[in-house]
Design goal:
single chain; Rossmann fold; 2 domains; 7-stranded parallel β-sheet; 5-stranded parallel β-sheet; 12 strands
Length: about 325
């Protein structure tokens, strides 16, 4: 089946390259690059598919749109606006492309806490030679439990790595039916409060959805072990930073590692910068090679499937944004 696919603005060298490559490699696709919003409004009328974000006024002009490839795994709040959610168009995203990079970042945090680097890095900056007392300041991983909240591709890969270090892994996921390798138990979100007191590491890999916004708050930090650590590499809006800061300063939990934040960039005056036992990275957990290659591969595969009338990969539940 021949179909028209519009790459919506804004454009850059990468999206123009993807469009040209797609036109060469998927001959069924008539690819149009819309450089301006006026171009988008004109070209959307007879488009079967689009890549990018689509505003309500542009969507209203679409007469035959059936597939939207989102430009991110979890776009900012508002991407899946009411008009898009109610429209019959099928949305797909780029999930799975960061699995290996982000799982490695999570394990860097786990190992840092397990070996006391949250104590020693600040002391290094002060040129202070002060070991923790013998047999303290470490977590023996084969006797620890990781609670992974969100066992999608990233969570599943993290589970395998945690299990390789001898950790017991418990997962919480709203949609997953199978139990991935390395996961000892898989539970639904209603079990979270019961599971939090068992965990030595609580690893947040969930996307930002209406259900996960503010998921970790003061009451849930109070359920965690005082010796436990929180790691969030999913989305910043899932953890209430003010509550986390208070929990850290009160000693309710032992430490936290964050790569994502409610507000980004993290404001210079935010108290979490100076909270005890905190490791912070500036939304870099997904950094690594081959990401654009992986993005294009998903676009191309879905274009082939669309042309053949086959089910698309990475279909999004638009109402829940993921």
């Amino acid at each position: 089946m021949v179909f028209k696919m519009v790459f919506l603005p804004p454009q850059g060298d990468t999206t123009r390259e993807w469009a040209a490559r797609l036109a060469r490699e998927v001959p069924e696709a008539h690819v149009v690059v819309a450089e301006t919003e006026d171009d988008a409004r004109r070209e959307i009328a007879d488009a079967d598919a689009v890549f990018g974000g689509i505003a309500p006024d542009v969507l209203a002009r679409a007469q035959r749109l059936r597939w939207l490839q989102a430009p991110q795994i979890a776009p900012p709040a508002g991407f899946y606006h009411r008009e898009l959610v109610e429209h019959p168009v099928v949305a797909t995203n780029f999930r799975e492309i960061f699995n290996d990079h982000i799982a490695a970042h999570i394990m860097a945090f786990v190992l840092a806490f397990a070996r006391g680097l949250h104590y020693y890095i600040p002391r290094q900056l002060r040129r202070e030679w002060r070991p923790e007392p013998l047999d303290t300041g470490v977590v023996h991983l084969p006797e620890s439990t990781a609670l992974i909240v969100g066992v999608g591709g990233i969570g599943a890969e993290t589970a395998e790595k945690c299990a390789a270090f001898g950790m017991r892994v418990v997962g919480v996921d709203a949609r997953r039916q199978d139990t991935p390798a390395g996961v000892a138990e898989l539970h639904r979100p209603y079990a979270l409060d019961r599971l939090l007191p068992e965990a030595d590491f609580v690893v947040m890999t969930v996307p930002h959805t209406p259900q996960t916004e503010g998921l970790m708050h003061a009451e849930r930090f109070a359920l965690m072990k005082r010796s436990a650590f929180l790691i969030n590499i999913g989305r910043g809006m899932t953890v209430k930073l003010v509550d986390l800061d208070r929990a850290l300063r009160a000693g309710e939990i032992a430490g936290a590692a964050l790569d994502v934040y409610e507000t980004e960039p993290l404001p210079e005056d935010h108290p979490i910068w100076t909270a005890p036992n905190v490791l912070l990275t500036p939304h870099t957990a997904g950094f690594g090679p081959y990401l654009d290659d992986r993005r294009y591969a998903i676009i191309a595969e879905n274009a082939r499937r669309f042309a053949a009338g086959q089910p698309l990969m990475n279909v999004v539940d638009k109402a829940n944004w993921f």
